[in-house]
Automatic annotation (TrEMBL):
The keyword Isomerase applies. It comes from Algibacter luteus. Signal peptide: none annotated. This is 6-phosphogluconolactonase, cycloisomerase 2 family. GO terms for biological process: glucose metabolic process. The keyword Magnesium does not apply. It holds the Pfam family Lactonase.
Amino acid sequence: MKYYQILVFFIMLCSVISCKTEKERTLLFVGSFTDKKPGKGIHVYEFDNHTGKSTLKFTVDSIINTSFLRLAQNGKYLYSVVESQMNYNGKIAAFAVDSINYKLKLLNMQDTGGRNPAHLEISKTGEYLVNSNYSDPSLSVFKINQNGSLKSYNQVIRFKDSSIIESRQESAHIHSSNFSPDGKFLFAQDLGSDKIRGFNFISNHKDSVLQNENEIKVKPGSGPRHFAFHPNGKFGYGVAELSGKITAYEYNNGNLTFIEDYLSYQQIQDIYRAADIHISPDGKFLYASNRGPEEDSISIFLINQDLGTLSLVGHEPTYGEHPRNFAISPDGNFLLVANQFTDNIIVFKRNLQTGTLKKLQEDIDVSSPASIQMRTYRIKN
């Protein structure tokens, strides 16, 4: 009996020692445009969760227009569009993340099946990656290998359509896609056709994992761009680039039901360029970015947890031009905005009770930032 007690004691002691030597490390991944030529496309920073300061640790060089990044749910792999906005097919690059040494290792690249990949989404199971091609309007689907690399695409769905703004909606333009909270459906934002294109996701099908397209029409001239589901799984919110509006939906078993529209901009403008949208980890607040031409700002809304409706809290300037993308830190305490045209990322401290933002002095200087991903890792010493 004494031997057993001693053994239990040592096991508990080792567990305590192990916990004491384990620490958290938050990494910040930034994807950039490289002016259509090989350059420094992806930067890896260590982010200080106490001060909001970032320290550059690693750079992926000699790569073209890595303008959108997506981390795997387990944080072990990073995926990036490559050669976006070129006059030939883009690529998707898969990287292994070395969170201990702050490095990325290229696993492989695959052709996207179209020009100008703009967005990446990963299925809830982590088995599939979906790419949105903007210029050759299509969705391409990739099976993810066990080591994080990508097989060549097994499905490409192409679209033909248009809408009322001739200069921007002369054809379909797939800007992003999102899996539903239950993982059973995919919703693609078609900026050019003023539609949200819904699909059943059949993960066990060999070739056509996206099936049974269902078109959800939005108001003409809206230009749906990005979308975010609420953590409670009951609501979804789309940001429309061309109308500058946020649309709230009720979500239920593959269906999106319109609730209300809200102007994201503080000022009425002739031209709108709303961009990105995210919800705080606690589900209380929604944020969207507005990219000029007369207002570069983050709009802040309070979310009604029961009805899904929004109440405007206010607007915060982004202290730079063209806030294409932004991210909320994993702990919810910070919001980082990538100002593409002024080559800077601005760090804000979030008030968790009011949702308001306070600019910190810890700006990050980086060329043409276009996409941000963040992840907190547990590192054993």
